[in-house]
Amino acid sequence: MTLGFYPGCSLKGSSREYAESVLAVAKAFDIHLEEIKDWNCCGATAAHNMNKELSLALPARILSLAEKQGLTEIVVPCAACYSRLTVTKHELSENPALKAVVTDANDLAYTGSVSVLNIVQMLDKYIIPNLEGRVVKPFEHKVACYYGCLLVRPHEILKFDREEDPQSLDALMLKAGATPIDWAFKTECCGAGLSVSRTSSVGRLSGKIIGDAKDRGAEAIIVACPMCHSNLDMRRDAINAYLGEKVDIPVLYITQAIGLAIGLDRKALGLQRHFVKVSV
Amino acid sequence: MSSDTHHSGISGLGGEVLGHTDVKVSHCYQCGKCSAGCPLSEEMDYPPSVIMRMLQTANPDLEDKVLRSLSIWVCLTCEMCFARCPMSIDIPKMMDFLREKSLNEKKSNPKAKEIIAFHKSFLDSIKYTGRLYEIGLFVDYKARTLKILDDLALAPKMMKRGKLNIIPELIKDRSGVAAIFRKANKKNKN
Questions:
Q1: Which of A185, B24, B27, B178 is the most buried (most CB within 10 A)?
Q2: Are residues B120 and B43 in the same domain?
Q3: CATH code (residue B46)
Q4: A38 vs B171: CB contact, 8 Å cut-off?
Q5: In chain A, how many domains are there?
Q6: Same domain, yes or no, for A42 and A172?
Q7: Residue-wise pLDDT tens digits, A4-49
Q8: A contacts of B90 (beta carbons < 8 Å)
Q9: ipTM value
Q10: Is A153–B83 a contact, with Cβ atoms under 8 angstroms apart?
């Protein structure tokens, strides 16, 4: 079967391994992910912090292109892109005047007919029903499932999982053979877009997350967002400086963990690209 | 101005917030859950609940302080405040409006210089190529902030792991994306 695919910029660059693992897992279950042709950046934090119209017009162009290509359902693995696309759909359906301004800026037809799936929804809908019997190497580790912000908030718009103590990633990891732990920082922010401009804040925020995961005995942290991953993995020096100790718990994308469980090659899942060595 | 209009949230900046975002500052009863849950409140000059109170007063001096605050820029839009607000006040949506207004009125806090520079470098990158070009973003950000040495060690490590593209990804319809920026900027002085 075929699903639409919006990788977004991170998955083409600093979070290449997320794209690799998403595509590898999809392929293992005979799902073809068809990329939206000529897609643009969703605008991310920068656009909605600086210019509202821009922050809606950029995602609207992506959704229009998907419509034009005949895609009815698109998978958006980056939690930030997922949030921007879903918020845009919501705002344009609630506010016809805004829709007129944004579609005029785009010069493309927009009806809002495309469904947007985050990675957990995609896995739940198309992979999990067929997972039984495919787990050849159960991921037998204690894992801290870290959801971050944009996968679950704001609930009024996303209507996905619980805002406090969400469970969807934990349920997936349980099926992959892992033992998800109870911990307190599932949805605390990692520092997100301040990674470059205020790295010390990221060290503190991400430090608390890593610190709690360690204190509760996690052997791996599971994420579904490239910003969460880059802060928890690439910013480990700042995190360790904040914690005052060296913590080497690896951070895996949910698709990497599931990929390992179904016996996919570590390199095909991009595990060698991480800053913190993936020892599990 | 009567105390009645002060608390209705329809006068002054609170009124503008309401008109542009539907967010009612008048609904805040100062429980402080937003400030307690905000991961950045200790780095802010005014925590979120205090920003709400300042807007409720409709005092022009306090409104000016809100637009000049560091708070509105260190806010990560993590949405925790909105999730926990018993009155469902969409504070992040209000923050987006306040940031844009602060920029348009050239009131942005000097301590937010790097944060704003990063956003500008990010948007410039996608304006020209349609997608984010990470090396271009770093170079442009360093040029804006003169933070030449920061993260210098990171780039080669990313390169070694195949996490940085040397050549930018260029979309075909760059003029379409440029037009989006042009039209959006017409209504916005930035």
A1: A185
A2: no
A3: 1.10.1060.10
A4: yes
A5: 2
A6: no
A7: 999 999 999 999 999 999 999 999 999 999 999 999 999 999 999 9
A8: 154
A9: 0.93
A10: yes
- Facing A105 at nearest CB: one of B76, B150, B183: B183
A90 vs B: CB within 8 A: no
Cβ neighbors of A232 (< 8 A, separation 6 or more) are: A146, A190, A206, A209, A210, A221, A223, A239, A251
The string of pLDDT tens digits covering residues A161-213 is 999 999 999 999 999 999 999 999 999 999 998 988 899 999 999 999 999 99
pLDDT band for B9, please (50, 70, 90 cuts). Answer: very low
How many helices (H) does chain A have, and how many strands (E)? 12, 8
CA B149 to chain centre: 25
Distance CA(A33)–CA(A19), nearest Å, equals 11
What pTM did the predictor assign?
Answer: 0.94
3-state DSSP call for residue A31? coil
Specify whether A207 is located in the same domain as A140. yes
Q: Is the Cβ of A231 closer than 8 Å to some Cβ of chain B?
A: no
Which residue in A13, A108, A192 is closest to B164 by CB distance?
A13
Give, in order, the Cα–Cα distances in Å from A160 to each of A116, A153, A177, A258, B84: 12, 8, 24, 21, 16
B93 lies in the same domain as B122: no
Encoding tokens for residue B90? 């969409």
Percentage of chain B exceeding pLDDT 90: 78
Question: What contacts A237, CB < 8 A, 6 or more positions away?
Answer: none
B181 and B146 in a single domain? The answer is yes
Estimate to the nearest angstrom the gap between the alpha carbon of B127 and the chain centroid. 19
Q: Is B1 helix (H, G, I), strand (E, B) or coil?
A: coil
Total domains, chain B: 2
Of B83, B115, B117, the CB nearest to A194: B115
